[in-house]
Amino acid sequence: MSKAKAFNKALSNIALQNVKGQYEKNPHITMHFVVRKNLKFSTYGGLTLNYRLLLSLTASCITYLMILLQFNGSPTRQE
User: For the residues 45-66, what does the mean pLDDT come to?
Assistant: First the structure.
């Protein structure tokens, strides 16, 4: 394991054990987690929830919403 990965793992463990909330207020630690973007969550090893999946879900929702808005704005034919 590289030194960078070991540092990230140690910092993640310290931040997760943060009881008093002192690390949440530190902008450097917060920025480290935002910029790093290596966090991965797994649903019991089956599906990995990462930024790629989040981006894909967001794009799908926006596309679906745009289609719904287009159908909602189209004139209806009344007889």
Answer: 87
